[in-house]
């Protein structure tokens, strides 16, 4: 589950529309927000990145969706790792496009992968366009 402070920020941003969204996303709950035992293939690492950037995107912008996610792997993510850490950052916004970066690291801080993501802000059909 997302920390209550983050949930409060998202709820304030969405106001009455909060109930219209599944927050956190069902896959975040299905993954239990942390890895206890895993054999991660590249798709699972990408999912961890997307599930880090997704909640971050809700904190910095109106509702939006992942348009593109690019991964560059430096080292394998193996099952002997106790956990991985994903750190995401907003690197820019232009009109309805958001750009994010992320790094995936092992417990010792070794870089395993880098990511770039582009999100598009979803226009509210009830609000006039920009």
What is the gist of this entry?
This protein is an alpha+beta fold and about 130 residues long. The chain is built from 3 helices and 4 strands; from the N terminus they run αααββββ.
Describe the structure.
Strand 2 (85-94) and strand 3 (97-105) form a beta hairpin. The protein has a four-stranded antiparallel beta sheet, with helices on one face. 27% of the residues lie in helices and 31% in strands. The chain has a single domain (4-121), classed as Hotdog Thioesterase (Thiol Ester Dehydrase, Chain A, Roll). With 130 residues, the chain is of the alpha+beta class. The termini are far apart. The chain has three helices and four strands; from the N terminus they run H-H-H-E-E-E-E.
**Overall number of strands:** 4
Task: List the uncertain runs.
Answer: none
Principal-axis shape equals globular
Which percent range fits the helix content? 25-40%
Look at the structure and name the CATH superfamily: Hotdog Thioesterase
Strand arrangement within the widest β-sheet reads 1-4-3-2
Helix/strand structural class:
alpha+beta
CATH architecture: Roll
Taking Cα atoms only, what radius of gyration do you get, to the nearest Å?
A: 16 Å
> Count of helical segments?
3
Provide the succession of SSEs.
Answer: HHHEEEE
Q: Report the sheet-strand fraction.
A: 25-35%
Average per-residue pLDDT, rounded, comes to 84
CATH topology grouping:
Thiol Ester Dehydrase, Chain A
For the record, the count of structural domains works out to 1
Mind describing the biggest β-sheet? 4 strands, antiparallel
Cα separation of the termini: 34 Å
